[in-house]
Design brief:
Length: 642
């Protein structure tokens, strides 16, 4: 870690930055002027703000506005807070993230964040930064982790998320051994709701690695623990007991005839007595703290039960009223598992209500269990599940509302497609990739979507993509391999990978295949589903390969946006990435981690896509006709059983 010393000799511990390569702003542009004004504004506020948090917007929201805030660690005084914010905005951010419209910088003492779109009041735990100590746990590591997580979850996360907590900041400690103490800290940005803060903290705590210290940093919160005090101990809810005074050092007269004890014997007695005294003191402290934590644990447990039973449950009458009894005028779209309707709650909040098909049979407990898992998924590129309704007649899912409906309404429509220039489409591609990476690697449970396609990607009011339709997901435990077989192949023709369509084998690489198809659709404005195309029309993948091999990528791009494709290399790399993701062999396809890395950096060399067409193995227990799978671009190959 790098260290910076400010002009007032306050040492700042720099942790890192996160800034996207796109979008960028030009020098002397309106955005740069607004950003400089934002920096000046928040530095000025930090000089007199005792709460260590400030949020503001500079500029017209419709023209190059900049949204930003700073957050100082809860135990920092005004001077150190101001020095940290000033250094971050005037020295480090311009150097680390030049001309970037979106950036975050973290120090031990503060963080500063800005963006060209509003992130206020929104929980964001994407792209966690995970630090760990170089020192491994000595002794019983299982007990260490148990004590650590009990302390962090049951005390810190709850207290930091309290509705009355202005700073959303808490600290605590727990005794691991007689001579070793674990100190913990947690903090959210104060604009979060209590529930979002708790969710951010608890999901971050789960990412702790086994070591004698560590921290997890995400845009909306931070958690940290060490085996030494690293914060102002006056912020502890219960102060550590002071060390007992040493016993008198004067010698006492002996009643024995031998006279005085030797100096060595006296020293040994004093040491043993001191150790016994310390041990008794520790036992008393532990018993006292267990009583406190037991009371707090009961509060947490009751809250969790309440969340499970009631927080996500919607009344059927409420949803009927919100959707005008599922009227046709409120219909937003149809899928294989039901119809989605627009709803308006009594408080004016817009929602999307998915009315699941009556043919879906699922026990109520299984249904609720899956709902609770999906509800824990929190990412800016995933549609958030708000709740559900389960009755004998209806099974309903309630989602956040996406103002611009689905991606297919734009890219496959000649007129609507003009609203998405190349940069907008590129940002959508990156957003989808990040959402998939979260599902595959960073979510509380590992998830394979299995039905990623253009009409399952919704767009919010700012055209940010949000992956939706989790009816087909496959959930894996943390220790399970993300690969499986199924006899019930669920998905959409054209988007399914060959091994999944043919043999029922699905993995993260089958999601990568679907993503590759979506990339090519976004670029070309053409759909993989050729049922509505002329019989002699060239299918999407064949057309992409033709332009790739002829080195004419611009002719593959949707004609209405070609003039906005200023970076031809970027277009070429996206086509190449789409072909890499749709390679026939699953082993040849990149993971979503590699995809995101590639999209965010032009310096990474891409491999050459392989067009070889191997025949997959087919399980003997199943039979497939040619017609069943010939949709996988018949002009390229047909499957057949060996």
């Amino acid at each position: 870690m790098n260290h910076i010393t400010t002009s007032t000799s306050i040492e700042l511990n720099f942790l890192g930055t996160s800034c996207t390569n796109y979008p960028i702003f030009a020098n002397e542009s309106t955005y740069e002027t607004n950003l400089n004004s934002l920096f000046h504004n928040i530095v000025s506020n930090a000089t007199e703000n005792p709460w260590g948090f400030y949020q503001t917007t500079i500029g017209d929201p419709t023209i190059e506005a900049v949204y930003g805030h700073y957050l100082c660690r809860g135990d920092q005084n005004t001077t150190s807070c101001m020095q940290c914010v000033s250094t971050a905005t005037t020295e480090r951010l311009p150097k680390e993230c030049p001309n970037r419209k979106i950036a975050i910088i973290w120090y031990d003492e503060c963080m500063v964040r800005y963006s060209n779109v509003s992130f206020f009041d929104k929980m964001d735990n994407s792209f966690p930064i995970n630090y760990r100590s170089d020192n491994n746990i000595t002794g019983n590591s299982t007990r260490f982790i148990e004590i650590l997580k009990n302390m962090m979850n049951n005390v810190i996360a709850v207290r930091a998320a309290e509705a009355g907590s202005l700073k959303k900041f808490a600290t605590d400690f727990a005794n691991y051994t007689t001579f070793q103490t674990i100190y913990g800290l947690a903090q959210c940005t104060p604009d979060l709701s209590s529930s979002d803060c708790n969710l951010c903290l608890t999901s971050s705590i789960q990412k702790f690695q086994e070591s004698l210290g560590g921290r997890v940093i995400v845009p909306s919160c931070i958690v940290r623990y060490e085996i030494h005090p690293f914060f102002d101990l006056s912020y502890l809810p219960l102060q550590p007991s002071p060390s007992p005074p040493p016993p008198p050092t004067g010698s006492s007269d002996s009643s024995s005839s031998s006279g005085k004890l030797s100096a060595k014997v006296l020293a040994a007695i004093i040491i043993v007595a001191l150790l016994l005294f310390l041990a008794a003191l520790v036992v008393v402290c532990i018993c006292y703290r267990k009583k406190i934590k037991a009371r707090k644990f009961n509060v947490v447990t009751n809250a969790a039960i309440d969340f499970t039973a009631e927080a996500l449950q919607y009344d059927l009458a409420t949803l009927l009223k919100a959707t005008n009894n599922f009227s046709a005028g409120n219909e937003l779209g149809r899928g294989g598992f039901g119809i989605v309707y627009k709803g308006t709650l009594s408080n004016g909040k817009l929602i999307g209500v998915k009315r699941l098909s009556s043919s879906i049979s699922q026990r109520v407990q299984e249904f609720k269990t899956e709902i609770l898992i999906v509800a824990k998924l929190q990412h800016r590129n995933l549609v958030r599940l708000l709740g559900f309704c389960y009755t004998e007649q209806e099974k309903l899912l309630v989602y956040e509302y996406a103002a611009n409906k689905s991606l297919d309404k734009f890219i496959f429509d000649h007129e609507n497609g003009r609203q998405l220039d190349w940069q907008s489409r590129y940002n959508i591609i990156i957003g989808i990739a990040r959402g998939l990476l979260y599902l595959h690697r960073d979510s509380p449970v590992r998830i394979i979507h299995r039905d990623l396609k253009a009409n399952n990607i919704l767009l919010d009011e700012e055209m940010n993509p949000k992956i939706s339709d989790f009816d087909t997901i496959k959930i894996f435990g943390m220790g399970q391999t993300l690969s499986n077989y199924t006899n019930n192949v669920i998905g959409t023709h054209g988007y399914m990978s060959p091994e999944y369509a043919m043999n029922g084998q699905f993995s993260i690489k089958s999601d990568a295949y679907s993503f590759g198809v979506v990339i090519l659709e976004i670029i070309s404005g053409k759909t993989i589903c050729t049922s509505n195309q002329p019989n002699d029309a060239e299918d999407l993948l064949t057309n992409a390969w033709k332009h790739w091999e002829a080195e004419t990528p611009i002719h593959f791009v949707e004609p209405t946006i070609r003039d906005s494709c200023f970076d031809k290399i970027q277009v070429m790399r996206c086509i190449q990435l789409g072909l890499l993701c749709t390679q026939v062999s699953a082993e040849d396809r990149p993971t979503m981690a590699n995809v995101v890395l590639t999209l965010e950096s032009h310096s990474i060399a891409l491999p050459v896509p392989n067009r070889r067409l191997p025949l997959p193995e087919i399980r003997e227990s199943e039979t497939f006709s040619v017609d069943d799978v010939s949709y996988v671009t018949e002009s390229r190959y047909r499957w057949r059983k060996k």
